[in-house]
Design brief:
The chain has 200 residues and is α+β, with helices and mostly antiparallel strands. It has 3 domains: 5-51, Ubiquitin-associated (UBA) domain (Helicase, Ruva Protein, domain 3, Orthogonal Bundle), CATH 1.10.8; 58-109 and 156-194, 2-Layer Sandwich (Tetrahydropterin Synthase, Chain A), CATH 3.30.479; 115-154, Orthogonal Bundle (GTP Cyclohydrolase I, Chain A, domain 1), CATH 1.10.286. The protein is 55% helix and 16% strand. It is built from 8 helices and 5 strands; from the N terminus they run αααββααααββαβ. Helix 1 crosses helix 2 (19-28), helix 2 packs across helix 3 (33-51) and helix 3 (33-51) crosses helix 8. The chain is flat. 26% of the residues are buried.
Length: 200
């Protein structure tokens, strides 16, 4: 099947891929746009995984105050070079991440950061809920694991759906910018402050 320049242009606009990369993806999927997008996203994720080992010590401290100044966020987003640190795509990512943190209030960056005591307490509650709903013992653990995924999506930043587009996870947004910039990008740390919140 012949791939048209219009198809290549559409795929490039949707994914940010280069001309040759977009053309190859369309050729290998016989012109199927959705499959080509998935293929490019998989390749991008694989490249991002390779870059994850590289040191990222440049970047930006992004400050965000929600309208009304009742919620504020400080975020450190790192990349490998100051060139990418000044890149508009990178800076837009930092802004979107800070806005998202202000709106969604994640407690942790990754699921691995959830303290074991909190995780154990959550698992006990989820098991008790499933049993109280009369679920059979042989499927309680499957239900608990499914609900635990929801817990991670609520409290772990990288697992959360993006507040402006819930079809995209935060981790996927970062992977997409890694693919476009060719550098490792890491959220080093973040803090969220809300006026009047408890300091306990």
């Amino acid at each position: 099947m012949a791939i048209t320049t219009a198809q290549i242009k559409e795929l490039r606009e949707a994914t940010g891929a280069g001309v040759l990369e977009a053309k190859k993806a369309l050729e290998s999927t016989n012109g199927d746009f959705d499959k080509a997008v998935d293929l490019l996203r998989e390749k991008g994720a694989a490249r991002a995984a390779k870059r994850a080992e590289r040191a990222a010590s440049e970047g930006i401290i992004e400050l965000y105050a929600h309208p009304g100044n009742r919620v504020g966020v400080m975020l450190e987003l790192n990349c490998e070079t100051d060139f990418v640190g000044r890149n508009e795509e990178f800076r837009n990512l930092a802004h979107d991440l800070a806005l998202h943190i202000a709106a969604m209030g994640p407690r942790y960056l990754t699921r691995e950061e959830v303290p074991q005591a909190e995780l154990d307490r959550e698992l006990d509650v989820l098991r008790a809920q499933a049993k109280a709903e009369g679920k059979p013992d042989n499927i309680v653990e499957k239900i608990v694991q499914g609900r635990l995924t929801k817990f991670y999506e609520e409290f772990c930043l990288l697992e959360q759906p993006f507040v402006k587009d819930d079809s995209i996870k935060i981790s996927d947004m970062i992977t997409d910018v890694i693919r476009k910039t060719g550098e490792n990008i890491v959220i080093r740390r973040f803090a969220r402050y809300e006026l009047g919140e408890s300091l306990d």
